[in-house]
Amino acid sequence: MSAPHRLPARRRWTGARVTGWIALSFWVAVALGAIWMVIDGFKPDFFWRYGPRMLGGFGVTLMLTFTSVLCGAIVALPVAFGRRAKRGLAYVLATAYTSFFRGTPLLAQTFLVYYGAGQFRESLEAVGLWAFFASPINCALLTFTLNTAAYQAEIFRGAVDAVPRGQSEAGMALGLHRGVIFMKLIVPQAMIVALRPFGNEVILMLKGSAIASVITVFDLMGETKLAFARSFDFQVY
To answer: What pLDDT digit, counting tens, does each position of 78-87 carry?
Structure first.
């Protein structure tokens, strides 16, 4: 005869377990309250008045995010190579670049580009660049591109360094050219390592793009602030 099935022992109600259930219940109540507040206070006329503008602002947010990430990836590649040089002028310049843009707030960088360019208007007009810097969205794109390029450069550098050195040594033992070793052996493995932190960087840029609203770019946050200024309805957020 088989041994009788024994029921698993019941978990004891420890202090940590009770605290966890209380915290979970609190946040569930807060979420349900927020959902009920939105449903109860839903105003169709308000939605139809500001909804299309906010949808357009969301498109601007996506454009800012993905354009800056793609352009930043192009800038990040030579910076990453400079960081891997370990010595020389390229290393010094790449290190200074990444240290500045990773060590200062994105908001301060945005102000520096947008308002700082105005201090050199005559010089920029002389070289035909004032039309670019006069546009808030161009200044936001430039700032976001330079900012995310610094982070992506470190992501790419770390991903390449994470590939075991034995991969390169095996390629050289087979008589492969250094360029072939890098493109065929190192890069595919490095891209797998870089995929997750690169995804995190895209998410951070998506959230950080709201900063563009402070320089009069009507992205999603900018349209939301405008709708609140006209209606004083906090539910717009």
So the answer is: 999 888 887 8
